[in-house]
Amino acid sequence: MSNFRFKALEIAQSRHAMQVTAPTERVGDFFGSYTFNNEVMRALLSPEAYLKVTEAISTNGQIDRTIADEVAGAMKSWATSKGATHYTHWFQPLTGETAEKHDAFFDITLDGKAVEKFKGSALVQQEPDASSFPNGGLRNTFEARGYTGWDPSSPAFLMDNGAGGKTLCIPSVFISYTGEALDYKTPLLKALNALDKAATAVCQYFDRNITKVTPTLGPEQEYFVVDRALFYARPDLVLAGRTVFGHSPARGQQLEDHYFGSIPPRVNAFMVDFEFESMKLGMPVRTRHNEVAPGQFEVAPTFEEVNLAVDHNALLMDLMEKISEKHNLKVLFHEKPFAGVNGSGKHNNWSMGTNTGVNLLAPSTKPKESLRFLTFLVNVIKAVHDNADLLRASIASAGNEHRLGANEAPPAIVSIFLGESLTQALNDLEVKSEVTVNKGDNVYYKLGLNRIPSLMRDNTDRNRTSPFAFTGNKFEFRAVGSAANSASTMTVLNAIVADQLNKFKMDLDARLAKGEKKELAIVDILKEYYTNTKRILFEGNGYSDEWVEEADRRGLSNIKSSPEALGIFVKPESLALFERTGVMNHAEVESRYEIELEKYIKNVQIESRVMGDLAMNHIVSTALKYQNKLAETARNLVELGMNAEAEPIKAILREISTRVIAIKRNVESMVEARKKANNVIDTSDRAKLYSTEVKDHFDIIRYEVDKLEEVVDDEDWPLVKYRELLFIK
């Protein structure tokens, strides 16, 4: 048992759940205690400054520098009183990770004394090196200047450094010297602003009191947890974030006993710990549970404004990784870290709310409210129908490519699930011009059990196989990858809905100008929209082969390759949409296309290199050593005259040789394909070669390696096995 794998197993098996203590008895006493929230601002700012800041947040206005100085002073006072020694602009560059550069809260005077210092200029703007972050050709390497700018709509927060100090983190946008967005946040804010304006204008037809529409988001985060020692015993997990090899264990998820089962003690302690820290940071995480696959779990927050929800999800992922280290665990956000069991997604539950407290996607029994609900529902359907390929592009990545359509996640075909009652309501609208929506809370299950209260039935069922499903008062975009920054998807979704609502307003205004009655004109437009887009509605099993065939007959796209999907971003109609809504200009879209292609290439390249290294330096060498042991045994049997007894061993020897030859041949072919791809200058063509000629070898090599895992002695196998990784206690 000198094998590194067994040492890691010994360490993992000796660990127990850590004790976690709540900061205080009541959540309300510490929730948001690490955030510079409204309550703190009201207490520390002058009434004039507080009013200007809150007005700027609600109207997307600017904060002048004099007010910024007062806010900076209040932030510094608050942060240092809680142990902060540094501050940073916390931003989300196009690397997929968050970024920060810490500066101390002091300066040196001419006579050498240290004085605390944090001015409004430092709060509003900082200057990281823009050439060192992905920019898709927007900046040359020698053109280094870029700017981060304070986003006051997302509260500043304190991050515990884990070594006694804290850092004040200021959520910020990131732009180049020439003004182009180099981050996820800037286009998202523009898309949210575009939707606010478009949706508010449509709401005015129904209620003049509605002056603002706020898109909301609740991202459910799926993830795997493995022991830290076992993680570091798997080079592929360390370098690629997923296991490139691994035979399925005898027991996986087939018993369906892990989902909502008892949470393992070590994992539960980790969950409790990061939830307490999340609460301090104002993140409203409320739900925790086991997911379907062994070793897989989920955390879900309550709904928040989209920009804040995206910030919180990025912060939550970072926090989970840090807290897991304390518990000797590792969190895996890769979409498909293990073959043969479910991968992980980030279910984006999206809706729209008004300043009057109305959820625009909540059904109603009142005629006027029903018409408003159907107006927004049908416009969302049309937006998704007309821009399905663009929405597909927003979730494209190397990791998600392993997951989509793998009989566990939504397929690469974008479709919408509404449920029986809503579909019937839209059919009635189309055929009879009648607007009738039944709220689900009017229907109860009768159980016939006196001690059990009546159960309320929703107006739609749930469809786990639909990528874009209506779930009662919101849409759940289930196809987003677990490692993704939701800003990319939310930018596209809010932009296409804003664009569609603008078109609806133009269509309606044209009819009203002809003297048509408003309600009748709205119904006629919705009928036309529904008739032209209902092919995207699907109520059945999205995993089935029949749906793939049916979708093809309907003319729906099935874009399986990420490079192909990403190409949708730079189509003329996509560029025009982003420009029309003011979300991104052509240069910004094209740079993102280049960046995402490069990320795809690099991820597949890393996986390929890891696979080649493990196959040749770990698996093949181990198999050959084991083969020598078997050959010696077979030789001894033959010398003893036991030829028949030696035959099964000879068969194993031949199998090992056959598989080793196949592995070596395919690894060499994969390396040659990689060299060929690397010599291609055009990024799009290079990505396509990685997607086909390089990646095509993955499953072949994996099959041979996983078969060797079944043959080679367990004592000799160098990699931690799935049965050891997945069933953490």
- Low-pLDDT regions: 440-450
Give the CA-based shape. globular
| CATH fold field value of the largest domain | Creatine Kinase, Chain A, domain 2
Number of helices: 24
CATH architecture identity of the largest domain? 2-Layer Sandwich
Percent of residues in helices comes to: 40-55%
CATH class of the largest domain: Alpha Beta
Query: Main sheet, how many strands, which sense, barrel?
Result: 9 strands, mixed
Name given to the CATH homologous superfamily of the largest domain: Glutamine synthetase/guanido kinase, catalytic domain
- What fraction strand? 5-15%
Mean pLDDT: 90
Structural class category? alpha+beta
> First CA to last CA: what distance?
22 Å
Radius of gyration, whole Å: 28 Å
Number of strands: 19
How many domains comprise the coordinates?
3
Task: Describe the structure concisely for a colleague.
It holds the Pfam family GSIII_N. The chain has 729 residues and is of the alpha+beta class.
How do the helices and strands line up, and which of them pair or pack?
Elements: H1 4-13, H2 38-44, H3 47-59, H4 65-81, E1 84-90, E2 103-104, E3 106-108, E4 114-116, H5 120-124, E5 125-126, E6 146-150, E7 157-160, E8 166-176, H6 185-203, E9 213-227, H7 228-232, H8 235-240, H9 265-280, E10 285-290, E11 296-301, E12 304-305, H10 306-326, E13 329-332, E14 346-354, H11 367-386, H12 388-393, H13 398-401, E15 416-417, H14 420-432, E16 444-445, E17 455-456, E18 468-470, E19 475-477, H15 486-513, H16 518-533, H17 545-554, H18 562-566, H19 572-581, H20 586-639, H21 643-678, H22 683-694, H23 696-711, H24 722-725
Parallel strand pairs: 1-8, 15-18
Antiparallel strand pairs: 1-2, 3-4, 5-6, 6-8, 7-8, 9-11, 9-12, 9-13, 9-14, 10-11, 14-19, 16-17, 18-19
